[in-house]
Amino acid sequence: MIEYTLLFGLGFLTAAFLVFLISPAIHRRIVWYTENRMKATMPLTPQEVRAQKDMVRALYAAENARTAQDLIREREKSLSLQLRHDSLALDAGRLSSELGALQAQIGDLNVEAAEMRSRLRKDENYISQLKTSLHIAEQATSAKESEIETLRTRLNKFAEKADNLKIDMAARDTEMESLKSLANALRDERDTLRQDVNLLQKRAKDAEQKLTQQEHLVIRLEDKCAREAAAAADKETLLGRRQQEIAKLKEQLKSLNAGLRKANRGLRDAGLATLETKGEELMQEESPASELDSAAVAARLAEEVRARSAAVSDRISKAKATTGNDSAMREEIASIAAGMVALTALNEGPSSPIRDLLPEDAGNEEGERVSLAQRAATILSQPG
What we know:
Layout: H1 2-41, H2 46-264, H3 270-318, H4 326-348, H5 353-357, H6 372-381
Helix pairs in contact: 2-3, 2-4, 3-4, 4-6
Coiled coil: 148-266
Region (Disordered): 348-370
Organism: Rhizobium gallicum bv. gallicum R602sp
């Protein structure tokens, strides 16, 4: 604490010492400024004193003249005010009378004002009602405006749809034009197709006539096939009997051959005798074998002709509505007829007169039509 007081005292003393050092210079400066100020304001010569007096007199004279003018002006103002006061007194009397009249009018106006206040209250009530109705109307108008906006948006959408529909209509008009041209082309094609259909109908009628003829021919061939089949069945029974007889003959030949072998053993020239017996045996065995082969071929050919004729009759019954396979049908019927001719020749044997009518060369040139005789000769020339 003492240190702080010592430091404070030391600081205060240093400050006082500095003030004592600076104060003489500041005092001299103040004195110099004061002297200069006094020299500037106080006159130093008689001319300056006289000039100052003249200036004061002039200022006083000017001030007196100004006050005189102000006095004259004030007097004129007082006169004008007096005159104005008189006129105002007259006006006040007149206004007092008017005031009485006005007070009477004010009474009347108060009554009217009361009536007007009542009317005003009614009008205010009516205005409040109008305000409420106006608020409701504003809300309705805002709702209607929103509806109008929605309707405008819908109208814009409908306009866009209408534009799109116009574009679609234009595209459809072009499509209609193209379709009209296509329809005209189709009409022309229809006319040509009608002509083709008429031609095809004529051809179909001709084909039907030919088909009926072929059906009659097939019926006749079927009857003939049935007769030939019956004959073939009879021949098959005959062939079976002959086969039984051949079997019996074979057994007899075997027994005879055994006896001959026993007899030839005792002979010196047994070799020649045995050769003759073998040749005879071979001839006897070959003749029934050839008969058996021809009978088997005839039976097989009869079965084949019967199956093919049945297939052709089925195809004819199914193909009455179409005429596209006439050539194939004719070829099949011709092959069946050739098979019947060959079957007849086989059943009659080598002495059949049909073999003399058939050509020896069954071949034909390419593109040439094959006749019935050539077909039959081809079937007979095939082995088995």
